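Table S2 (continued). Query chain:
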Amino acid sequence: MRVLVADDERLLADTVAQGLRRLSMAVDVAYDGEAAFDRLGVNRYDVAVLDRDMPGRTGDELCRWIVDSGATTKILLLTAAAGIRDRVEGLGLGADDYLTKPFAFAELAARVLALSRRSAPALPPVLEQDGIVLDSTRHTVSRDGQVLSLSSKEFAVLHVLMRAGGRIVSSEELLEQAWDENADPFTNTVRMTVMTLRRKLGDPPLLHTVRRAGYRLGA
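Corresponding output:
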């Protein structure tokens, strides 16, 4: 899952991003509306967390742009305005959810996860395939009842592969969905992560390399 966090309160934005990364999300951060707009124009995000009152382009403007562009990105607006009229106005812009400041990180994370499951095609919070059970809410993975200890990136890669439903996923697609914009596309980070994930999944092998195409999960 790839998320954009845009807020001019740098400490808040960095703290939220750090917390979401611990949940195996790829997170890009923007500290003003112009930087957020640039990232939205280049990257495909599952969820955008936007502060309504940013310098440059406001969260409201970004929300309208996302909706008008036809992107599937789900939008969570953040604001200090807690009145009913403010919430109604925010949702009327096309936002999918609305959260007032101050907020508990656990609630924000739950809302981001819920929004990501509403992207097309909608997916349940628990994915199952060939004995593997991945629970995105509890951030747990097991195979044939045995709990597996995965790193954040291993969890993210497995999530992308399970969402693919057996189709081949390229290295480029994994890099786009499981890593943020700071990832170096010329490193072997994807291959190394897949290698350690394959080992942790155990036998019989379920994670296959398809030469010159990518990776596929399935028996």
